[in-house]
Design brief:
By secondary structure, this protein is α+β, with helices and mostly antiparallel strands. The protein has two domains: 269 residues, no CATH class; 205 residues, no CATH class. It is built from 19 helices and ten strands. The chain is elongated. Keywords: Membrane, Transmembrane, Transmembrane helix.
Length: 503
């Protein structure tokens, strides 16, 4: 005679499997919904990030952000929560609503204030971060979201602006990028694999140290590819140690989740919250973002792309050429900037009413990468954090070379500079040339001095954040030296073309 327990044992087993996997399926469904909503809301921002990853080797770490977040989330999930099982949906609605509206306002209002430094600051990235946190609060609750604070902190640290600040502080090289990525990997695996704080610290230090050693070995072996040095050390060290930890614990299982507190979400059936998130995602998706200003680069066959330019007829160089190697921290390994000061051979009454000979400064940046020239604008090379910039005007220099001219009012020195910029390439190297003039026509007139001024210009970004573009914009510019710079630019372009043809 068959006992009832034996007859129903398959049903009991199926129920147990369903009981184990049901919370995982619920959480996974909500996470997929949040991911889709975030991608819809910030589709145009992610398109810009893809362009950034494709064009800047040192930004190739960006796709690792969701991977690192998942690693942190895994470790937080399987650890037993210590908070009380209290959930107040009114508080969830208030906090989540405020954060998601804040994300919308950041994208709608603040992003446009950083148009000139969009790639450098990536102002929409904090909005993506806020939107994800807000969606988590609305779909899972405030307390469960706060449990993952170490994950949210890691994502914040990996956003482009804080990452670039640290990168430049470490020298800006691909080796420095590999060191930073290794630290990210140590952080993520340390949080993800830790059962205790001591375990997390040990795992994190081991992974970071292994990644740093690997990065140094690759650099010493002559690996010069920026993407390889940025990605390989952290990925290899993190994957190796992570797999070893999983092998010790015999992999992942639903029972491990159940044993460590992975229960049904405290928020049951958040249909209204999901509808609100979906509506806000669609509304946010219709908000445009800043179009980062780009300067077209002319392809000039046979162009002489030496690190310094040939001085055109009618002008002579004054003093030695100054070389600034630190620009490799901004524009990539092997990049260099040369500064030349040229003086007109004869006065021109149309350039100076006292018939004085005018001086022009030439700054030439030579690099293997084009996009970093857009990432770091003129404010990143000079100490102009108290200056106002006009909108650019275009100028045709011939031979397919188009230039942009800006007027810069330096309120600290009571001077007005005119800056004309153009780009060109021949072969695989790019050059950006800047001609600078100053309205003080004396021989000892001060010109903006190249300096690594990213830190000081953070104050400018804060002012723009609080006061808007009015703090940095010159609405009534006077292009005092436009004609002179266009004439000089024509002569310089012709001189380089002739030099290339004679080689």
């Amino acid at each position: 005679m068959t006992t009832p327990s034996t007859a129903t044992s398959p049903d009991v087993a199926a129920t147990e499997v369903l009981r184990q996997w049901h919370p995982i399926a619920v959480v996974a469904t909500r996470l997929v919904f949040l991911a889709v909503a975030t991608c819809v809301a910030f589709w145009n921002s992610f398109d810009q990030y893809a362009h950034l990853v494709a064009g800047d080797p040192l930004s190739s770490y960006l796709p690792l952000i969701p991977v690192a977040a998942l690693a942190c989330a895994y470790g937080t999930t399987i650890r037993k929560p210590k908070e009380l099982p209290i959930n107040d949906r009114q508080i969830d609605a208030i906090v989540g609503g405020v954060l998601i509206v804040g994300a919308f306002l950041v994208k709608a209002i603040l992003v446009g204030r950083f148009e000139d430094v969009y790639y450098l600051t990536s102002p929409s990235a904090p909005a993506v971060w806020l939107f994800a946190i807000a969606g988590s609060v609305l779909m899972f609750g405030l307390r469960p979201t706060a449990r993952y604070r170490w994950m949210w902190l890691l994502v914040l640290l990996m956003l482009p602006l804080p990452h670039r600040i640290v990168l430049i502080a470490l020298g800006g090289s691909a080796l420095a990028a590999g060191v930073i990525t290794s630290i990210y990997a140590g952080y993520a695996i340390g949080v993800g694999a830790a059962r205790t704080r001591r375990d997390g610290l040990v795992y994190g230090v081991v992974i970071a140290a292994a990644g740093v050693v690997l990065a140094v070995c690759m650099w010493a072996a002559g690996v010069s590819d920026g993407r390889a040095l940025t990605l390989a050390p952290g990925i290899i060290a993190g994957t190796a140690v992570g797999c070893w930890i999983l092998w010790r614990r015999r992999g992942l299982s639903a029972r491990e989740y159940r044993d460590h507190g992975f229960d049904d979400p405290v928020v049951r059936g958040p249909r209204k919250a999901a509808a609100f998130v979906a509506v806000m995602a669609v509304v946010t998706a219709f908000v445009g973002i800043a179009n980062p200003p780009t300067l077209p680069a002319a392809h000039v066959p046979g162009l002489a792309t030496g690190e310094s330019l040939r001085v055109p007829a009618g002008w002579r160089q004054v003093g030695a050429t100054h070389r600034y190697g630190w620009v490799s921290a901004l524009f990539g390994s092997g990049s260099v900037m040369q500064r030349q000061r040229i003086l007109a051979d004869v006065p021109n009454i149309s350039w100076d009413d006292k018939n004085r000979r005018r001086s022009v400064m030439i700054d030439t940046v030579t690099t293997d990468y084009l996009l970093p020239l857009d990432i770091y604008p003129v404010t990143s090379l000079y100490d102009l954090n108290k200056a106002r910039f006009s909108d650019p005007q275009s100028a045709d220099l011939g031979h397919g070379v188009d230039a942009q001219i800006r007027s810069v009012v330096d309120e600290a020195k009571f001077l007005t500079f005119t800056i004309m910029t153009w780009r060109w390439r021949s072969g695989d190297r790019w050059q950006e040339i800047r001609l600078l003039s100053v309205d003080n026509h004396e021989p000892d007139a001060p010109f903006p001095v190249p300096t690594l001024s990213i830190g000081r210009n953070l104050a400018l970004l804060v002012n723009a954040l609080v006061r808007g573009n009015s703090v940095t914009a010159d609405r009534r510019p006077l292009f005092k030296d436009r004609d002179m710079l266009v004439d000089v630019g024509h002569d310089i372009v012709d001189a380089q073309i002739q030099a290339g043809g004679s080689q």
